[in-house]
Specification:
disordered C terminus; Lipoxygenase-1; globular; 21 strands; 2 domains; Jelly Rolls; 6-stranded antiparallel β-sheet; 357 residues; mainly beta; 36% strand; 7-stranded mixed β-sheet
C-alpha cells in the first residue's frame, strides 16, 4: 500500500499565501485623471475605457478634477478613447498615469482636438509597463514635434499636451506649456523664439487668466540612467524676461530617494534679459555624485503676483535639455551669463574662463 505524503498545515497556508500574493501582483493599475479648465465638470463629455472586453464610461459633472482607478490583469489590453458628446470640449483634457510608478503615460490635448473614432492611448498589461519612461544617457530633449506629444494649447481654457514621460502641475493660473503661448503680454515677458532657430520648439511657464491662483509651477523630466557615464552633467538653456519673474529652481532626485535636492536657483539678473529678443542663457551642472544612479530633474518657476501687473509678466522659457558626459578638458563655467561690460567670452572647450553669476 502506498502512503500519501502529508504536509504540515503551516506549509499549506504559506504556499496558499504565496500563490495569492503572486495572483494579487499579476495586474497593472492606472490612474485616469479628468481635467476641466473652467471648473464646471465635463458638461456631458465622456471617455470610454476598455479593459479586455469590458467597456466603462467616465465623466464628471462639477469641479476641475476627477480621478478614477483602472486595474487590469496581466495580458489584458486597455484602450482609452475620447467620446465627446457634450459642450465646451476645448476645456476638457485627461491624463493617464501608471499608479505604481507615478509616471504620466499620456497627457491629452483639448477635447476639440481629439478623435472620436480611434483610441488616444492603448497599452497591454505586462511587466514591461513600468519602464516605458526610463532613458539612458546621453539624453536630449528639444521640445518640438507634435508626434512626440509636444502640443501647444489652443486657448487659455486648456494647457495643451506634453510628452507622456514628462510631468507637470495640474492646471492653475501658472502652467508649463509647449510654446507658443495662448496668452498676451508678448511685449513684456518671455522669449521671442526658441534658442536654436527662433521657432516655437521650447517650453514656457505661462500666466493664465483662469484656473486656480498659483505663484509657482513645477515640471519634471523622465528618469535617466547614468550607468554609462564617468563625469555626467545636465545642461539646458533658459530665458527669464519679465518683471514678475522671481527665480527658476532646478532640483534632482534618484529613483529611490523620494526627495529633491536643489542644484541651483537662477535669478533674472538685470541687464541679462532686457527684452524678448535677449539671448538665451545656458546653465551647466556636474552631477558626478549620481554616477550609476537613475535621476530625474524638476524645474520650478516662481513669480511675484503682488505687482501692478498681477504676475502676468512672468513667462519663463526652457529649451534644449541634455544629460551627457562632460568630455571637455576643463569644466564649463556654471550659469554663464553675458553682460554688457564683457567684450568677449570664450565658451569652447579650449577656453575655461568667463564671467559667471
Amino acid at each position: 500500500m502506498q502512503l500519501k505524503r502529508s504536509f504540515p498545515f503551516s506549509q499549506v497556508i504559506l504556499g496558499l499565501s504565496l500563490l495569492l500574493s503572486i495572483q494579487a501582483t499579476a495586474q497593472c493599475s492606472y490612474t485616469l485623471t479628468l481635467l476641466d479648465s473652467y471648473g464646471d465638470g465635463w458638461n456631458g463629455n465622456s471617455i470610454d475605457v476598455m479593459v479586455g472586453s469590458t467597456t466603462s464610461t467616465y465623466s464628471f459633472s462639477s469641479g476641475s478634477v476627477a480621478t478614477f482607478s483602472i486595474t487590469a490583469a496581466a495580458g489584458d489590453s486597455l484602450s482609452f478613447e475620447w467620446q465627446g458628446g457634450g459642450n465646451y470640449q476645448d476645456e476638457c483634457t485627461f491624463n493617464i498615469a501608471n499608479t505604481t510608478t507615478g509616471g504620466i503615460l499620456y497627457s491629452s490635448p483639448a477635447g476639440n482636438l481629439l478623435s472620436t473614432s480611434v483610441p488616444q492611448y492603448t497599452v497591454t498589461c505586462s511587466s514591461s509597463n513600468q519602464s516605458t519612461c526610463l532613458y539612458s544617457s546621453p539624453y536630449f530633449e528639444e521640445f518640438s514635434g507634435a508626434g512626440s506629444g509636444w502640443i501647444a494649447p489652443t486657448n487659455q481654457f486648456n494647457i495643451g499636451s506634453l510628452n507622456s514621460c514628462w510631468n507637470r502641475d495640474s492646471y492653475t493660473k501658472y502652467n508649463w506649456i509647449k510654446a507658443p503661448s495662448p496668452s498676451g503680454f508678448a511685449s513684456f515677458t518671455g522669449p521671442s523664439g526658441d534658442h536654436t532657430n527662433g521657432g516655437q520648439g521650447y517650453l514656457v511657464c505661462d500666466p493664465y487668466q483662469f484656473g486656480t491662483g498659483s505663484s509657482s509651477s513645477s515640471l519634471i523630466t523622465p528618469y535617466v540612467d547614468l550607468a554609462n557615464d564617468s563625469a555626467p552633467q545636465v545642461s539646458f538653456w533658459y530665458h527669464m524676461f519679465g518683471s514678475d519673474i522671481e527665480r527658476l529652481e532646478i532640483a534632482i532626485t534618484t529613483d529611490t530617494a523620494g526627495i529633491w535636492t536643489v542644484l541651483d536657483s537662477l535669478l533674472p539678473i538685470a541687464g541679462t534679459f532686457a527684452s524678448s529678443n535677449s539671448p538665451w542663457q545656458q546653465a551647466v551642472y556636474p552631477i558626478s555624485n549620481y554616477i550609476n544612479d537613475t535621476v530625474a530633474f524638476k524645474f520650478t518657476a516662481f513669480r511675484n503676483t503682488t505687482n501692478s501687473s498681477f504676475g502676468n509678466y512672468s513667462r519663463v522659457g526652457l529649451d534644449d535639455l541634455s544629460v551627457t558626459e562632460d568630455t571637455s578638458s576643463c569644466s564649463s563655467p556654471l550659469n554663464l551669463q553675458l553682460v554688457s561690460h564683457v567684450k568677449t567670452i570664450h565658451t569652447k572647450n579650449t577656453y575655461c574662463y568667463g564671467e559667471s553669476s
